[in-house]
Amino acid sequence: GLAPADAAAAEGWMSHRNNVPEWRDLLEQGLIADTIEVSGTWSQIGAIYEDVVAALKTVPDCVNASAHSSHVYRSGINLYFTFACMPEDASAMGARYLESWDRALNSTASAGGGIAHHHGAGRLRRDYLRHDLGENGLALLRKLKQAIDPQGLLNPGKLVKPDVDTGTKPSVALTDDTTDDEAGAW
């Protein structure tokens, strides 16, 4: 499990947990940052936390990796990981961003956790759904998508690839309409 924090630390966090700068302000300072929410059972969550924080800290130019929880259940808990990278070369920001997501989601899956919680899957999680659903689950999603949208007009390829899942890393353009993991879930 997780180690308890002292009361002052917990109260300080509670009173300031939603005080975050605008993303554009961070980008102007050369920082790329985001949150990634995952889930796990109580027996898994300690390893998920340790593994994901350690994996994020191995991303080149990572300056912060931490987590907090917002949802707790008898069966398990979610974690919101926050990461920030500050590459010297601004052209590396996109690569650091995607590498952070890759390491966090693969580490979560390796520790037995779920790659999402209440925000679901979208563009950034698409190629990691195989961890949670397996090939049969992905095939079922493709069949549902084909039945609901036979012409492929509704966000084609955003949740599942129309063909066989290759397990490759996502190719996400870092523009205003693609940085939100929840965008384009179907």
Automatic annotation (TrEMBL):
Cofactors needed by this protein, per the record, are: FAD
The annotated regions of Acidic residues compositional bias extend over: 177-186
Where do the segments described as Disordered lie? Answer: 155-186
Looking at the record, the residues that make up the FAD-binding oxidoreductase/transferase type 4 C-terminal domain are 6-159
Q: Give the binding site residues for substrate.
A: R24
UniProt keyword annotations, A-Z: FAD, Flavoprotein
Instruction: Specify the domain of life of the species encoding this protein.
Output: Bacteria
GO biological process per UniProt: lipid biosynthetic process
Q: Which residues form the active site?
A: Y80
Which segments of the protein form a coiled coil according to its record? none
Query: Which named protein is this?
Result: FAD-binding oxidoreductase/transferase type 4 C-terminal domain-containing protein
InterPro entries attached here? Alkyl-DHAP_Synthase, FAD-bd_oxidored_4_C, FAD-linked_Oxase-like_C, Vanillyl_alc_oxidase_C-sub2
- Flavoprotein among the record's keywords? yes
Q: Which GO terms describe its molecular function?
A: alkylglycerone-phosphate synthase activity; flavin adenine dinucleotide binding
Q: Pfam families recorded for this chain?
A: FAD-oxidase_C
